[in-house]
Amino acid sequence: TAPELIRNFCIIAHIDHGKSTLADRMLQLTGVVEARAMRAQYLDRMDIERERGITIKSQAVRMPWELDGTPHALNMIDTPGHVDFTYEVSRSLAACEGAVLLVDAAQGIEAQTLANLYLAMENDLEIIPVLNKIDLPAAQPEKYAEELANLVGGDPDDVLKVSGKTGAGVEALLDRIVERVPAPVGDADAPARAMIFDSVYDTYRGVVTYVRVVDGNLNPRERITMMSTRASHELLEIGVISPEPNPTKGLGVGEVGYLITGVKDVRQSKVGDTVTNLAKPATDALGGYSDPKPMVFSGLYPVDGSDYPDLRDALDKLKLNDAALNYEPETSVALGFGFRVGFLGLLHLEIVRERLEREFNLDLISTAPNVIYDVTLEDGTEVKVTNPSEFPGGKIKEVREPVVKATILTPSEFVGTVMGLCNERRGVQLGMDYLSEDRVELRYTLPLAEIVFDFFDQLKSRTRGYASLDYEPSGEQTADLVKVDILLQGEQVDAFSAIVHREKAYDYGVLMTGKLKEIIPRQQFEVPIQAAIGARVIARETIRAMRKDVLAKCYGGDISRKRKLLEKQKEGKKRMKNIGSVEVPKDAFIAALSSD
Ligand code: GTP
Questions:
Q1: Distance between CA atoms of 247 and 218, rounded to whole angstroms?
Q2: Alpha-carbon distance 436 to 411, whole Å?
Q3: Which of 168, 522, 555, 594 is most solvent-facing, going by the fewest CB within 10 Å?
Q4: Whose CA is nearest to atom 13 of ligand 1?
Q5: Residue ranges with strand state E in 387-520
Q6: Mean pLDDT along residues 367-394
């Protein structure tokens, strides 16, 4: 297709404002998916996405659309809305010239509407403001058209009003996309340059790479090179997704599609890399994406230690599909061999863990998540701590923790509630604005550690679901943080160490010692469970001694029964971990780690 006839656009919106539903309607109206093959959230291919009703991965689909008798090719990229997946959004934006900014006509502008709009503006995209869900009785299209027009600049009458559910206004929106979104520009005669914006591992076909061609063209059977890794391969297949993969005779300027090279090694197809021809290579790579920085770390361990190699293999494969994933091996006294994995946030952690368990059939346990701390020792040594058990024991000069700038949009009646929550979480207010009479924007600096856990849940429940949150990293600050260790009979149990604010150390100690007392079975001797900061014990519980003699119940000489009992005890022992001389069933660690 000639570049003049191509339009590459994405749909951006706050979570649940209806992107996936609108995408469904577009697929149907353009005839890409027949009515009878239609299912809700067509592009959310992963089971987790469909069950949770959220989009995690971006998707690219090509749709034909005629305007005034001229056929056009629209490439639509559906993007996720949750703050943890902003990274996916920004990659998709770089492959587009335009963005449909979708706002729920019953909700108005929310925190991620703003965040995504700013991202689109940074990428110089043409913004098409659209109000969705006009079929809802609670919709207030006039009011929010005004709000939206104020935000993006322009006339309220210019804001399109659609319903992804009924299909109302969607044809007009497709026309508007053709009219307003600029056609891609590139040099058709130059050496090929295509940006990799995603790739997935397919069991049968190997690595499938999604690209947007900027210059030149890519053709089947020719050899291509990945510019950063210098790896070269034969192009076995090239094509477009519409809505299933369709092989084509090649991809030219401005086109979006997929490549298959038969490569199995997942590391050779890096998101953000540039693909070029081997015979006629480009000299400069396209500006890639900066690698996303993990914000939250957690240890991931196989429940069954022998699954460790499988876990490593699974992480390698998942990484291909999730550039934000970071991991390195670690060992724990309590849990054995595993990985310390970096995530963009808690939802990201949950999704990764669930994908590993489902797609790779693993049974996993994750340790309590923590953020990165920078520690300066008194002798000037700098230490980066991603695992609490590595927190230095020596003389510490200062500890710095990551902070974020948070933007919270809330109805004005909840302003006090939201401020209260932010104060509890060591927040510092930066500003407050009324977006309209009844909608307030609050800006805070908050420690990341305070918001990654249950902040969002708290915000939602205290505002009856009305407040929305967005945040971005904003450097670090010094804080009075300490490491709390948990000791079993004087031996530290690494998986339970935590870095917490000094004021919350006692609560953590009491909580963990109490929990472990419940879970760890009695031993043949008394076992103290202590919580300590350095050498200072701040909480203590005791597991009382019990004599466990499995033969006690066997009178007389039934030797086979005795043997059976001893065998059983031995079996049980295999599943035990020794912390010093204390035997702890692995299940106990798992229970203690997962019960909150
Ligand atoms: P994420 O992918 O998680 O970001 O969500 P999304 O923005 O893709 O939203 P989705 O399309 O999943 O829609 C969210 C909810 O709104 C669903 O329950 C939809 O059925 C509903 N919905 C979407 N569009 C409309 C609409 O036009 N009218 C009405 N009444 N409901 C809609």
A1: 13
A2: 10
A3: 555
A4: 18
A5: 396-411, 428-436, 439-447, 468-478, 481-488, 491-492, 498-501
A6: 87
Instruction: Give the lowest-confidence range in 3-12, 319-328, 487-496, 511-520.
Output: 319-328
Residue to mutate (ligand 1; options 19, 21, 44, 85; most atoms within 8 A of CB): 21
- Give the mean pLDDT of 296-318: 90
Residues at the binding site for GTP are 16-21, 132-135
Query: Hey, which bits of 37-167 come out as E strands?
Result: 59-67, 70-78, 98-104, 126-132, 160-161
Q: Where are the alpha helices (DSSP H) in 236-392?
A: 308-321, 346-359
Distance of alpha carbon 56 from alpha carbon 374, whole angstroms: 31
Query: Which residues, including other chains, have CB under 8 Å from residue 89's CB and lie 6 or more apart?
Result: 10, 12, 58, 79, 80, 81, 116, 119
* Nearest CA among 361, 422, 384 for reference residue 297: 384
Residue 514 Cα to ligand 1 middle (Å)? 44
For 133-154, the pLDDT digits (tens) are 999 999 999 999 998 888 888 8
Q: How far, in Å, from the CA of 17 to the mean position of ligand 1?
A: 5
Contact criterion met (CB below 8 Å) for 261 and 275: no
Ligand 1, from 12, 16, 55: best to mutate by most atoms within 8 Å of Cβ? 16
**Three-class DSSP labels, 379-407:** CCCEEEECCHHHCCCCCEEEEEEEEEEEE
Please report, as a single letter, which amino acid is at residue 211.
Answer: V
**Packing angle of the helix pair 141-152, 111-122 (nearest 10 deg):** 40
The residue type found at 523 is: Q
Cα separation, 133 vs 538, in Å, equals 55
Encoded tokens for 46: 């992963």
Measure the CA–CA gap between 55 and 45, rounded to whole angstroms.
9
Chain segment 325-360, per-residue pLDDT in tens? 889 999 887 788 999 999 887 778 887 888 898 888
CB 203 within 8 A of CB 184: no
- Kindly give the distance from the C-alpha atom of residue 259 to the centroid of ligand 1, in angstroms, as a whole number: 31
pLDDT of residue 596: 46
**What is the distance of C-alpha 94 from the center of its chain?**
19
**ipTM of the complex as predicted:** 0.96
Tell me how far the alpha carbon of residue 21 lies from the centroid of ligand 1, in angstroms: 5
Distance 314 CA to ligand 1 centre (A): 32
Q: What is the pLDDT of residues 52-84, one digit of tens each?
A: 554 444 568 899 999 999 999 999 876 655 555
pLDDT tens digits for range 529-544: 999 998 899 999 988 8
Pocket-testing residue among 10, 15, 20, ligand 1, by greatest number of atoms within 8 A of Cβ: 20
Q: How far apart are CA 161 and CA 129, in angstroms?
A: 9
Q: Which residues line ligand 1 (CB under 6 A)?
A: 13, 15-21, 41, 53-55, 80-81, 132-133, 135-136, 163-165
Distance, CA 201 to ligand 1 centroid (Å)?
Answer: 29
User: What pTM does this model have?
Assistant: 0.67
| Token code pair at residue 51 | 């069950």
- Residues linked to residue 238 through DSSP beta bridges, in sequence order: 259
